[in-house]
Specification:
This protein is mainly α. Helix content is 74%, strand content 0%. It has one domain. α1 runs antiparallel to α6. The longest helix is centred in the last third of the chain and has 19 residues.
């Protein structure tokens, strides 16, 4: 059973989203929603893209929420992988 947990954890480590990438996407493509697309928020990404980040205001405010969205995206990914491997998902912190 421990090998299943290790395999699931390794798969998660390979698929989790990077904070550095998310922040760089926000910095360079924030008004186009690049960071939202990367974190899996396609609807919000399209909204940013169509409004050019709310003329920059929405994109600027979005910078305060990147870390929380990153944690949520990674928690969802971890639960998905663990469940797919027949394991109970670890409790999110």
């Amino acid at each position: 059973m421990d090998s299943n947990v290790a395999a699931a954890q390794m798969q998660y480590d390979n698929e989790k989203k990077s904070a550095g990438v998310a922040w760089l996407l926000w910095l360079f493509t924030g008004a186009l929603g690049g960071h939202r697309f990367y974190l899996g928020d396609k609807g919000m990404g399209i909204g940013l893209l169509c409004t050019l980040g709310g003329l920059g205001v929405w994109a600027l405010i979005d910078g305060f929420f990147i870390n929380a969205r990153l944690r949520a995206a990674n928690n969802r990914k971890q639960q998905e992988i663990f469940v797919r491997n027949g394991l109970s998902a670890p409790v999110a912190v």
